[in-house]
Amino acid sequence: MTWTEGDINGCTLQPLKPYHDERGWLAEFFRHDELASALHPAMGYVSMTKPGVTRGPHEHVDQTDLFVFMHGTMKLYVWDARRGSPTEGVKAVYTVGEKSPAMILVPPGVVHAYKNVGTTDALIVNCPNRLYAGEGKAHPVDEIRHEDMLGSPYLMD
What we know:
Layout: E1 4-5, E2 12-15, E3 19-21, E4 24-26, E5 45-49, E6 54-59, E7 65-71, E8 73-80, E9 90-97, E10 102-106, E11 110-116, E12 122-126, E13 144-145
Parallel strand pairs: 1-9
Antiparallel strand pairs: 2-10, 3-4, 5-12, 6-11, 6-13, 7-10, 7-12, 8-9, 8-11
């Protein structure tokens, strides 16, 4: 499959605005008054990705991810694989992290991956709108993994 570069419908990248003082900095990435209630986080987690390591590509059936990139240097890839989407077949690539802190909403059906392209460990926060494996971790995980798919159309640089 050939992808067109561009913005993806429903996939919102928002640069963070750090507020600095003598103690360091603070940046808001979620406010319930600025996000539709269906997208409000159900949980949150932080992950660390080592230099050169890739996470993804994968997608979700029902889950919207709210990723925050603020430490390290990541190359973020998103592909619109949703049938009938106005931006079906569009790919977007962003460099995010310490020099360009950002929050991104990734809706269901949008394949996503990121790679640590820096020289230090990177920290990533995710606040998805669904619980991992449901209440009590008793349900199937909402994830379609493409990492080991032969002939995958989700290629990264």
